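Continued from yesterday's entry.
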Amino acid sequence: MDAIFLQILNGLDKGSAYALIALGLTLIFGTLGVVNFAHGALFMIGAFCAVTLSRILSASFITIDETRTDFLGNPMEVQTPYAEAWFGPEIGASIIDWAVPLSILFAIPVMLLVGFIMERGLIKYFYKRPHADQILVTFGLAIVLQEVIKYFYGANPIPTPAPEVFRGSMDFGVMLGFDPNVIIYPIWRLVYFLFSLSIIAAVFGFLQFTTFGMVVRAGMADRETVGILGIDIDKRFTIMFGIAAAVAGLAGVMYTPINPPNYHMGMDFLVLSFVVVVVGGMGSLPGAVLAGFLLGILESFASTTWAIGLVPGINQIIIYLVAIVVLLTRPRGLLGRKGVMEE
């Protein structure tokens, strides 16, 4: 039983990333009808927002410490972060330590801007084009974006640690009634799961309980009728594209301590997340979230030693096998709507 709980926990943090990226993909498809293969790149850009802010906050200058000497007896040169010089050693060190959570504030306007530029500068010209054209152009955009990141940040992963208070592991098994030291789990992975739940709840709450969200949902169901009523639905859909970009970016920001950012991480998650969207049902927001968590947990169980020993390589193909089974039995996905992608 303890092994089962551990694998469920392992699946939830990866499933959280799948669910957030798939949620953004579905928002864009549901509002604009665009199959956005550049959405994984938005996840990557969010991760590098955290890297950028961490580097900015860690920027330092050289000072001479007369109280310390090197082996030749000369005063030592000391790297002093600007944050510590401006705010004091304790506060400055705390600001640097909390770079990843602070990156949320940095990433939101950046991702909204990136989403707006992407939609107004490119995507809007492909609204009425075939889905194949949309896939090709957005996939090309994703490649361009990852090469830009590679040029400025290099090809190697960049470790970006979580705040010190969230490093290490906790005895999660005790909270579930197990014996001590049975289920030890990294604290930040739990933080990421709870963060994902809060973002998902915020998106659904925004769409369900605000006037803006209600108009967007009406536009998703019948765009022409909403336009006849005099509502500028295109403007609202552009804002939703920005929100979808921000959701993917925030998923990337908080994932950096789990998986050090690299220039191809967007592609790594995009294909899997698109499979998640298809399994959940194209255009279905609840389906995207449900499928994200379910497939994350299945992938976790498929990565265990006994599963790989039984079927070598099963951890690499389990998501695709599930997608095949679901689409053969339910062509619209788990919660897909009639008529979506069926023309």
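--- second protein ---
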Amino acid sequence: MKMKRPSGFLKGTFKHVVVMVIGLCFIYIIKLSFDSEDCDMTRIHYVKTAHVKKTQKFAEKVLQAPCRPSFVKKEMSRLFGEKYNINTSSFIRKDINAHEDIFKYEPPFGFHKFSEKLKDLLELLPEYDLPEGLQSKHCKHCVVVGNGGVLHGLELGYVLNQFDIVIRLNSAPVQGYTDDVGNKTTIRMTYPEGAPLSQHEYYPDSLFVAVLFKSVDFGWIQAVVKNETLPLWMRLFFWKQVAEKIPVMPKQFRILNPAIIKETALDILEYPEPRPKFWGWDKNIPTIGVTAIVLATHLCDEVSLAGFGYDLSQPNTPLHYYDNLCMAAMNEQTMHNVTTETKFLQKLIKEGVVKDLSGGIFCTYCKKSS
């Protein structure tokens, strides 16, 4: 006769596993903080006035060019064929259960096993598209503003503010950096850990687009929409502090359609199918930046980007425009394939599908001095 182990044994084992996992997370985060060396900002290369003027002139020319309706969608279809779906909805709608494909994969590529949580969340969100004023616009010029240090000193802010739609990423600030990056924000696209902690980075008319990666992300977005306090146990499952108060109305929240991430990663970038792992992610998750560019091709008619480009051959240059991290910090990350993404963006720029205003990916207006 087999002896039954007491139920407390299983509970105790589970608790030990949870503590061990949380401990490993903490150690990993501490390790990253020590490994990421600060850049010496006094050694940043001075941006020549001639280059600044040339960059500004190019950006103004792009913005002043006639807007071509549906141009970027047609071009994406030309380049990628059936891998790019013109009819993909940018944000999740309440009729999501009618689209079975969305439940094939787990987050961030789909909502497998999360249909009920998603349904409850959508009941709180009254709108699921661009605001009416933008929807009705015949042709939309859009720009995705990356977080790259390449924006330092280019003073593109006044041009960026003139685009119809300005998409910003994660916690990238505008306060204190408006000369270089502007302050107009139509869309702030982020996952929970990337959301700005400062309430000054949220604007009354901007959309907050949430990218959901894991189970607790659903609870987080529900808490911030309802303006509720985040439970202590839930905070333990985020790898850094998350914003708990986001001063925008429920009608301004959107949930990114995971089909956009799936299209970016599996179809366009041709990453392998996601495989289950005991810990961490496979190296097949696209960055928020490149995902935002694909999103922009679905939302807009003409698409530009600024602040993109990781030059790993210059490890001592600034990684971001707003902090002291060096480019060398990118060598520590294992989630994203920067090389593949760069080749993809270079292809879009060289083919004329999108415009690179800051020249960090491929500078079409630069001339090498002899």
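The longest strand covers residues 141-145. The domain at 16-87+139-207+257-356 is CATH 3.90.1480 (sialyltransferase cstii, chain A). Will compare against the first tomorrow.
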